[in-house]
Please model this.
Amino acid sequence: MGKVAEQVPSTEKRAVELLRFTTAGSVDDGKSTLIGRLLYDSKSILEDQMEALQRSADITGGSSVNLANLTDGLRAEREQGITIDVAYRYFATPRRKFIVADTPGHVQYTRNMVTGASTSNLAIVLIDTRHGVIQQTRRHAYIASLLGIPHLVVCVNKMDLVDYSQEVFDRIEEDFTKFSTRLDIQDITFIPVSALIGDNIVERSANMPWYEGPILLNHLEEVYISSDRNLTDPRFPVQYVIRHDGDGNNDFRGFSGQVAGGAFRVGDPIVVLPSGKRSTIKEIHTIDGPIDIAFTPMAVVLRLEDEIDISRGDTIVHPANVPFVTQSLETTLCWMDDQPLQLSRRYILKHTTRTVRAMIKQVNYKVNIDTLEHETAEAGLDLNEIGHVSIKTSAPIVFDHYRKNRQTGGFILIDEVSHQTVAAGMLNEVPRQPPIPEYEGYMI
Model:
């Protein structure tokens, strides 16, 4: 299957690639202004949006257009001058399409940052030159690492307020680099910018001739993300079973979903988990017709040679490449609810297309965001806290380590009573459960 996966990127290059990125940083570091400047200078603002910005400036008595208002859409955000909710914006250049999530900087809205960053390929962390690396900087960098975001851009903002000093930039880069050695992020790029004025956002700044690295937009256009997807481990969570009764010989039964990893070919042997039933791929269908190979992140319908029992929540994989299957989960949990975690409470666990009941058995420790040290968590987890948690589910979960596959390694917890999402989790490796011979199910 590895050889098949290696052929995938060449096909994918025919389309304009999509990059999802998020912004993070402390309050008033200039996240919304940076996105507004990026949209404005790249000519991605529609005429009616520009007119609305001008009206807003006239109403508030501002001397110039406030670019932060492009993303700070809530009334409370504009009145307080802060970002509260996650704002998503779409723009494109001839080289790439972008979806950007502008996330809050306040500690109390850390859960919103987790939401915005969960699907991102890249994170932009802003640092105010006047304050340097602070608690929220470390918090957001750690969350980006925890969520498996492979690319990080550190924008040292408001360089105009320190006379574009290279010494200030170098000191902040050194401080952040020391902290980042404890994080699992391999690709970090530092860019000195002024979001308000536009230095090094879309055009290279003449005020910082000492800086020879990439400017922000060019880096966003060129950062290589094709290898970020898991093209090695074939994973297909079944979302829906499609049935169509024909005239006897033309009955149609297929399984729709999105390929969450690797690739599948017509003729490939497969095993369905957690049942362990086996078959062979007969056909692969898309909205444009049948194809011979499907790869992540394509949405397809698989037809099998054999009539076997498959339903929503099952996962189709290759027999020679199987994930973990267990009801005992060791997880890293970001608690997102105002009500603290309760061991006696029952929750609903949503993982890929599978939904099961779950109970938190133990909170092993929580993470001190400032020092990254492990601390005891006898009282459980409170809002915005992160910890290592053991969970027991009512039915088997089919998963990979989160670092290998963010889709099959991530999940959310839902309160069984309020139906509010209370936590986002990442699954860690556990000892593989011994399968019954010929993959006829797993010992759970």
